[in-house]
Amino acid sequence: MTGPHTLAAHGGRAAVRRSRAGGTGGTGRGRGPRAPRLVGAELMKLATGRWQLAGLCVVLAVHALPLLLWGAQADPARAWISLRARSGFLLAYAMMFFGLVLVTSEYRYRTVTHAWLVSPGRVRVLAAQATTVVLTGMVLSSLVFAAWWLRGAGRHGGAAMRSDRPAQLLSAYLIVVAVVCAAGLTGVALGELTRGLGLGAGTVALSGLVEAVLDGARFHGPVTAPSGVLLWPTTETPVSSLSAAISWAVVLIAAASASLRRDLPS
Fold first, then answer.
1. What is the predicted pLDDT for the residue at 22?
2. Residue 186 pLDDT class (50, 70, 90 cuts)
3. Dist CA 116 CA 121 (whole Å)
4. Region 203-226: what's the mean pLDDT?
5. Is residue 53 predicted with pLDDT exceeding 70?
6. How many alpha carbons lie under 13 Å from residue 4 in its C-beta half-sphere?
7. What is the mean pLDDT of residues 62-66?
8. Contact between 133 and 182 (Cβ < 8 Å)
9. How far apart (Å, rounded) are the C-alpha atoms in residues 23 and 124?
10. Helical packing angle, 166-194 and 122-156, nearest 10°
């Protein structure tokens, strides 16, 4: 015999199962906010937070002194050859750390519990965080690349910085943006997999050390692949390192999505 209490119990267990499975897709009623709202919430937290926005401003400010020193070099060829490294190398690893901090801070302050309650589809929360990092990486890399290019063009003329060869200039810019965003996504994924800033930072450091020692992994692992692209001259494009940086970001994000089924420790 089935009574109202039995039906309620069955309904409650079904709701819990749907919640733990991350929802059933769609954006209907009871399924949590849509993706743009989640991205907006992440951007709002970034804009109103105390340390994350300040850290990004420091990353931009760090480029000021190199712009004054290296930007005054007399060799026009050097200005173009080093454009990709100077505009992207520091920023790529800053974005990797930023993605790590963005995710692990949710676990540190336990705000992830509220996020998962508001949006039962946990993958949406991860997607919003990844989108926030990509948007931030695109903006910052565009600003830094433009600053270095303008410095070189002002010193040596637009022709020296390939203003007369837009395809080369666009290629250099897109590579910087792609690698910076891929590094940020790697940080997001590692943050979700480790769920702790100390463990995540240690994983990055250990992985980078192992990759640097092993010949087969050097400049092709998740940590050193960005270096394999950005430390090379702008006139050269290490396709294998570029592919590795993007591929690792995709693979790690997929692994992070699968790890969302883990419950939070009590």
1. 42
2. very high
3. 7
4. 96
5. yes
6. 0
7. 85
8. no
9. 10
10. 140
Nearest-CA neighbor of 76 among 231, 230, 234?
234
Q: pLDDT at position 175, please?
A: 97
Closest Cα partner for 84 from 21, 10, 175?
A: 175
- Of the chain, the end-to-end C-alpha distance in Å amounts to 37
pLDDT tens digits for range 7-26: 344 444 444 344 444 443 44
* Contact status, residue 99 vs residue 188, Cβ threshold 8 Å: yes
Question: 73 is written with which tokens?
Answer: 């070099």
What number of residues does the chain have? 266
Rounded to an integer, the average pLDDT of 167-196 is: 97
The DSSP-derived string for 73-111 is -S-HHHHHHTHHHHHHHHHHHHHHHHHHHHHHHHHHTTH
DSSP string, the chain: ---HHHHHHHHHHHHHHHHHTT--SS--TTS---HHHHHHHHHHHHHH-SSHHHHHHHHHHHTHHHHHHGGG-S-HHHHHHTHHHHHHHHHHHHHHHHHHHHHHHHHHTTHHHHHHHH-S-HHHHHHHHHHHHHHHHHHHHHHHHHHHHHHHHHHH-TGGGTTT-HHHHHHHHHHHHHHHHHHHHHHHHHHHHH-SHHHHHHHHHHHHHHHHHSTTTTTTSTTTHHHHHHTS-TT---HHHHHHHHHHHHHHHHHHHHHTTSPPP-
Please tell me the distance from the alpha carbon of residue 99 to that of residue 102, in angstroms, as a whole number: 5
Contact 229, 235 (CB under 8 A): no
What is the rounded distance in angstroms from the CA atom of residue 103 to the CA atom of residue 95?
Answer: 12
pLDDT at 1 over 60: no
Place of tokens 């591929």: 247
